Amino acid sequence: MKFALRPIALLSAVAVAMGVVARVDAATTDTQKFTANVAVNMSVTAPSDAVLTHDETDANQAFTAQPWSVIGNSQNGVSVSFATNGPFVNTADATFKRDAKLGLSINSQTGPGAFTVSQATAQTDYANSVNVATVSAVSDGVSNATLDLSVEFITGTFGTFAAGTYETIVTGTITAL
């Protein structure tokens, strides 16, 4: 009986008989993807509360400019506004009020986008029912900034309003564009 071995079978039989193990190489390169997901981060952070003592003149009383921190990583930019909740109101007798004036400027900023002030000043006028003053800024892309908020207590004529503590609250609001 004759056996006819095919060439591949013959090579395999010879390799096994000789104790040689054929090696099949694995791939010599491969890849792995790394992904970092970055959430939209928009925030506006107020400094601590500000207090001043009136100097008892007819001059408007200016608080030290307050640095608000603004972060906006929206690619289209953000809009940020600062608004009073009303004029300054005497905490013991709300019938005594003084107008509030706001001012906004850019202290510093970083990032590929840039902030610009869109409304630099505003003032309440409680006698004419203008009870909210709003200032604002916008960015044209990803940017962080420190925005300086200036607040003034409008005196008018000193002595025409009651002594006491007068308060207004400013709220900062940020939205994506």
TrEMBL record:
Keywords: Signal
Protein known as: Secreted protein
Domain of life: Bacteria
Signal sequence range: 1-26
